[in-house]
Amino acid sequence: SVTSLDSIPMHGRDLTVHPDDLMEPPEQVNDSKQEILENKDVVVQHVNIQGLGRTKEDLLGYEISDVFHSKNLIDVMRKAHIARQRLLRLGIFKQVEVLIDTSEGTDALPNGLDVTFEVTEVKRLTGSYNTMVGNNEGSMVLGLKLPNTFGRAEKLTFQFSYGTKETSYGLSFFKPQPGNFERNLTLNLYKVTGQFPWSSLKETDKGMSAELNFPLGVTNHTLKWEGVWRELGCLARSASFAVREESGHSLKSALSHTVSIDSRNSAIFPSRGALLQINQELAGYTGGDASFLKEDFELQVNRRLFWDSVLSASLWGGMLYPIGGQSSSIADRFYLGGPTSVRGFGMYSIGPQSEGDYLGGEAYWAGGLHLYTPLPFRPGRGGFGDLFRTHFFLNAGNLCNLNYGDGPQAHLQKLAECIRWSYGAGIVLRLGNIARLELNYCVPMGVQSGDRCTGTRAGHYNSKLL
Amino acid sequence: MALVSAEPWPENATLYQPLKEDQILLSDCASSLAVQAYLRMCGLPVQVVCRANAEYMSPSGKIPFIHVGNQVVSELGPIVQFTKAKGHSLSDGLDDVQRAEMKAYMELVNNMLLTAELFIQWCDDATAAEISRPRYSSPYSWPLNNILAYQKQWEVRRKMNAIGWGGKTLEQVYEDVSQCCQALSQRLGTQPYFFSKQPTELDALVFGHLFTIITTRLTSGELAERIKGFSNLLSFCRRIEQTYFEDKSSST
Q: Where is the Mitochondrial outer membrane transport complex Sam37/metaxin N-terminal domain positioned along the sequence (chain B) (predicted)?
């Protein structure tokens, strides 16, 4: 959607590489010792946490209680390691050390153990300064974070971003349920300004949202209410009349639900696992001017093949159904084209347009087939060379408006005609766990009149930072 | 400008204004009627389309604006220039002295009548609360309607303070309107139009404002009464209405 900012995560998700990702599981002692240790019964008598300042103790009880149920020494070590992970994921400790010792004191049993977690809390207030580069834009982001604000792993964040195309600020409050960190509530207040040259449109959103996350089995659910005051305007005097007609103010009050299952081992460069995410949004039933039902999904499957190469297939799609007879707003429609969907086409420059301004569409689908292999002859193997991959890809997609009066047969037919697609190859560079840089040679095909391709139709080099 | 004049006036020229029934305010209605009168006097057909977001669609933020071919032009002054470039003009027959006089009277109408309309709409608490804010915010839902209405009110009040009208009372404004009408009435005299037999853009502008004021119901009928006191202005409005708007069933 036009309103989402690809480059700024507004949900307080930490993008740093966690040291635990690199940490190895506890060492395996050799068999004979293991037998002795496993056969020795132990009882965990005390589990302590030392080094607490503002953190409330009742929060931590849930994370460490399992250690009490250890039966033998290996069990204690394993459970203590898991408890340490759980304490770290709360985001309130800089460091957690585990000490396992025999019990002392008057009530000490001969096989009793004391487990102590020595923690170092994070500072009350941290400031940060980042520069972010997204799809063809750059911005300077200043952040203020108050982790563990009231002692139960809450987080208050303020973010201010000044960019080449947009300015925004946001206030966010995150509260997890004690004992159930994956169940949490986030409240947001924000103002976001965006410029969209492919539509000659500028948009200012002022809004608030309340979001509830919770896991259910293997799935993760998010329920969200969002109220946004949107102001649309022409980016230039030369904007098309179709875009000029969308100028003005509107209010969107929407409820949305997202369910996702993610078994991938990485978000940027997965080599195995799959992702399925389904999102729906209903606007208009809790007030506001905008009234629609929006559905979209994303499916990605990754599989490792011979010789360290990875095959990745992905499919996205979505549909916007305006309710109550009014037509959809340019701010709610889907857009297609560019390095994140169909390479070889200009950014969001596929589909319905008027005088060169892309208006978006009410239905779309996009798919990609990617093959990542190590560089030929594997230069720099084991070191720098591992960050590069050769990349072969096939992208396809379509974006259009549907006549909702016709049946599903007609809809499928419309989405299947005039498919845009492209193929090519290139090199991908992995930048930490955050981004990827691509340099591709790409041939766009199935170009319809009105679409804009990057470079010549015959194929071109392009580089993208994603 | 050379490119613009090359194209003839198209059949599908459109004029945009806010919604007639529920939304449009006195000042916008007057400005829109002035442009419509001018175009009819020129013999240029234009279709009137009402949009709730007309004010935001306009490139200058002011009503009305016209969409002609690929061009979008707003406000009477630029529209007069635009039609002149296409070869249509009402003031060609005037000499330089008369043209300067015409410009001066148009300035008078804009500085007095239009400003008075804005003042009464937004600076008079009774009118603002009973008419202006509800009408202005009618296309939007809560709480956006209140936010936009108050934002507009603050903006107009700030402008009034900037031009020195902030301290005026309603009585003073009515007096100013009377004086303005006095000057117009004197200039018009017994002629059919301000510059003898043919109407000019000044006639369109004066008609737009006076006709709208006398046919719009406000919280107080005082303003309309002041204008009705000048009989030659009344018959002027009636004459233009009958000559150019006889096919229209309603006035605003």
A: 32-152
